Amino acid sequence: MRGVNPDAPAHSAPDPRPAPTSEENRRDQGVGASPVREGSTVAILGGGPGGYEAALVARQLGARVVLIERHGIGGSAVLTDVVPSKTLIATAEALTVTEQAAELGIAFTGGGDGQVGRLRADLGVVNRRVVELARNQSEDIRGSLERAGVELVAGSGRIGADLSRLGQREVHATLADGQEQTFLADIVLVATGASPRVLPTAEPDGERILTWAQMYNLDEAPEHLIVVGSGVTGAEFAGAYNALGTAVTLVSSREHVLPGEDEDAAELIENVFRRRGMTVLSRSRAAAVRRVSKDDGDAVEVELTDGRVVTGSHCLVAVGGVPNTGGLGLEEAGVEISAAGHIEVDRVSRTTALRVYAAGDCSGVLPLASVAAMQGRIAMWHALGDAVSPLDLSEVTANIFTAPEIATVGVTVPREDETTQVVQTYLPLARNARAKMLGITEGFIKLFANGPGGEVIGGVVVAPRASELIYPISLAVAQRLTVDDLAKVFTIYPSLTGSISEAARRLHRA
Ligand SMILES: Cc1cc2nc3c(=O)[nH]c(=O)nc-3n(C[C@H](O)[C@H](O)[C@H](O)COP(=O)(O)OP(=O)(O)OC[C@H]3O[C@@H](n4cnc5c(N)ncnc54)[C@H](O)[C@@H]3O)c2cc1C
Ligand SMILES: NC(=O)c1ccc[n+]([C@@H]2O[C@H](COP(=O)([O-])OP(=O)(O)OC[C@H]3O[C@@H](n4cnc5c(N)ncnc54)[C@H](O)[C@@H]3O)[C@@H](O)[C@H]2O)c1
């Protein structure tokens, strides 16, 4: 991996200085005459991907590990965010695929009176499956942690302000019954995640005005769901509920949905949303959401800042998250927190307090489960003196689970200030033979290289299961392969990956 400065903020550009050696790490961590070593105690606050992946690494390196989790092992990632939303989307995806059935020559029968039958999802059944699957996943992770010898504490953690002469810090856990437990830790990792942001004028009631974490309580499909916020969360839920047959209105504050994402991809998804009957209100902000009583039952009203009012049966407020960093004793311990409430970390997950590390959404580096897990592992490799490469965000692969999906890695917009010339190509999937056979009419491959025939530095794939198709591009970016390396590899004929190879061939010359 590339050499970078571990002291740089985690979101800054790479720096050419070499990565720290394990010996330097040990020196860094020394407090007086007590270097951190095998047999140290690591206390982890939070059992999401940032926390549980770190716990497994720390055990592997011989530390005693105490993991304090206040809600459920697996964290929000497993219980309310990634796992449940992607399980719901699996049902939506199955319904979307059936939309193409007629084109592929399949007819549905059994509608009665000569009518064609319609598929529909039973949201009660879907949501019970979602919750059950998330619970099972949480249990699986608990099992792995227990087998690895991690001590699990069900409670709310916070850290003490002072370091002992031996460089240890008290970590306190308040258990459900109010009892307190205290541990002496050589190393602390804060991985407490984030919670849905609540607008004071749109307080969720868990029934009609909902956060994403409350969506799985629904027993029946909403008649008309208003989604406030067209970031990744809003777009994924809006797309999924639209596919499940619910009328959806998406309140989008910007010109296009998915601000900050590849513009061609965002435009394509917005067109797909509209074509499938979703109402997308662009440049619209919600000022307030309230529950109202209508003759035919309960309803919600979303008042926009320009005075318009949208009425629906339910409202999902998806306006981002706030880091869980309050009440943990962080400031008192010397941990610097940004104005937005995120813990400041460097690229090996160190905070400004000695031997206190932070990982995941509480650090605000890049709110993805994969990044949280990597930050957690890096923290433990660094703290316990193993070889470590600082976090490199240029290699992160991300996916938006709309239909079609949007997967991205590395550089995904042309950079004008580059000394090397960035070249790119755009290849619509509609011309791909396999896409035609599968009835795929939308989607594309974009590839970026640092010059004709040069190294692959990024890519965008918009396609069904783009999350799987992006892998060869991710591999090329991480391994610094050239477009020619990528183009020379055999692909299956016919296959969607054939278009990745074709895109690479196009970048052989300017
Ligand atoms: C709807 C949605 C869908 C998403 N989908 C994806 C996706 O498909 N792929 C992806 O990579 N990312 C996705 N994300 C982002 C992903 O969920 C987060 O990046 C990830 O959960 C961060 O992991 P974490 O370990 O930092 O925090 P979390 O998973 O939030 O875990 C933190 C844990 O800490 C616990 N905790 C908090 N305070 C304390 C305390 N004082 N003491 C003890 N425990 C405490 C919490 O209870 C929680 O269990 C999604 C996010 C949302 C909102
Ligand atoms: N598939 C995935 O990997 C996945 C899925 C969901 C979330 N996530 C992660 O979670 C992060 C947060 O995503 P998010 O979508 O929850 O939050 P976000 O902050 O990215 O998006 C929230 C959106 O709501 C808008 N907004 C704020 N107030 C509003 C108002 N009053 N009316 C209308 N719109 C308003 C904002 O302008 C913004 O566009 C993402 O960056 C992503 O990394 C990842």
TrEMBL record:
Domain of life: Bacteria
Record protein name field: Dihydrolipoamide dehydrogenase
Cofactor detail note: Binds 1 FAD per subunit.
Domain FAD/NAD(P)-binding as annotated: residue spans: 41-376
Family indicated by similarity: Belongs to the class-I pyridine nucleotide-disulfide oxidoreductase family.
Organism of origin: Bogoriella caseilytica
Positions annotated to bind NAD(+): G229, S230, G231, V232, T233, G234, A235, E236, G320
TM spans (from-to): none
Residues that, per the record, bind FAD: K86, G157, D361
GO terms for MF: flavin adenine dinucleotide binding; NAD(P)H dehydrogenase (quinone) activity
Required cofactor names: FAD
Domain Pyridine nucleotide-disulphide oxidoreductase dimerisation: 399-503
Keywords: FAD, Flavoprotein, NAD, Nucleotide-binding
